[in-house]
Design brief:
single chain; 108 residues; mainly alpha; 6 helices; 61% helix
């Protein structure tokens, strides 16, 4: 198969798997034409840690000539300690944010 055909097949697989695994619909036309959009979508797919998505991304990155953006250093343990030491709140994050935002961040 040609390189363009391989890209199209993998982009379509990415669309289907992201829709199934992450319930996220992506725009294939933007993925094909907009490099920044493609970088963000591929990073989202990598961050999901879904085996099928990771496989597709690993094959698609070289075809689209988009390098992987991996953190070079491990996060500082001292920075994570205060967040872990904070007491758990019994209120929901939405109520703590100052209001009932019923549809923000979730489906109806």
């Amino acid at each position: 198969m040609s390189k363009e055909n391989d890209k199209f097949v993998l982009q379509t697989r990415l669309f289907v798997i992201m829709r199934r695994a992450l319930t996220r619909v992506i725009d294939l036309e933007y993925l094909r034409t907009d490099r920044k959009y493609a970088e963000i979508i591929l990073q989202l797919a990598e961050d999901s840690n879904d085996a099928d998505l990771l496989d597709v991304v690993a094959k698609l990155r070289p075809l689209m000539d988009i390098p992987s953006i991996k953190p070079t250093a491990a996060p500082c343990p001292a920075a994570a300690a205060p967040a872990a030491a904070a007491p758990a709140s019994s209120t929901s994050p939405q109520a703590a944010a100052g209001g009932d935002k019923k549809y923000i961040g979730s489906l109806r």
